């Protein structure tokens, strides 16, 4: 767990990667380094993905709530319908030819 918090060393203070290289060789040291890197990147990638997924779900819910609220607003419905009818009347009056 110590490597997770930035102190990747033995109790005596020797860095674990250096200790591994001295005791087990270069291949083991490189393998440990790759494992620690992949584990750290993978761990933070999972945390980021969960965080982003929750934010997107929250925003989708918020958007749907706003749409439902507007759909159930009768005053807004009447205002927009009145505006639509006015525009239709204006278009009908402007397309009539004089003398027809």
Comma- or semicolon-separated keywords:
mainly alpha; single chain; 3 helices; 100 residues
Strand content: under 5%
Poorly predicted regions are none
Helix content: over 70%
The outline comes out as: rod-shaped
Structural class: mainly alpha
Computed Rg: 33 Å
Order of helices and strands: HHH
- Count of beta strands: 0
Major pleated sheet: none
| Through-space gap between termini | 89 Å
| Number of helical regions | 3
Mean pLDDT: 85
Notes on the structure:
This protein is an all-alpha fold and 100 residues long. Helix content is 77%, strand content 0%. It contains 3 helices and no strands. It has helices at residues 16-24, 26-71, 74-95. Helix 1 (16-24) packs antiparallel against helix 2 (26-71). The longest helix has 46 residues, at 26-71. It is rod-shaped. The termini are far apart. The relative contact order is 0.05.
Q: Helices, strands, pairings?
A:
Elements lengths: L15 H9 L1 H46 L2 H22 L5
What's the quick description here?
By secondary structure, this protein is an all-alpha fold.
């Amino acid at each position: 767990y110590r490597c997770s918090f930035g102190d990747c060393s033995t109790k005596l203070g020797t860095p674990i990667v250096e200790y591994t290289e001295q005791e087990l060789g270069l291949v083991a040291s490189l393998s440990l380094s790759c494992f620690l890197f992949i584990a750290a990147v993978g761990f933070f990638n999972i945390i980021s993905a969960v965080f982003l997924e929750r934010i997107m779900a929250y925003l989708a819910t918020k958007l749907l709530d706003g749409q439902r609220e507007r759909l159930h607003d009768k005053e807004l419905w009447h205002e927009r319908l009145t505006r639509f009818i006015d525009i239709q009347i204006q278009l009908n009056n402007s397309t009539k030819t004089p003398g027809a």
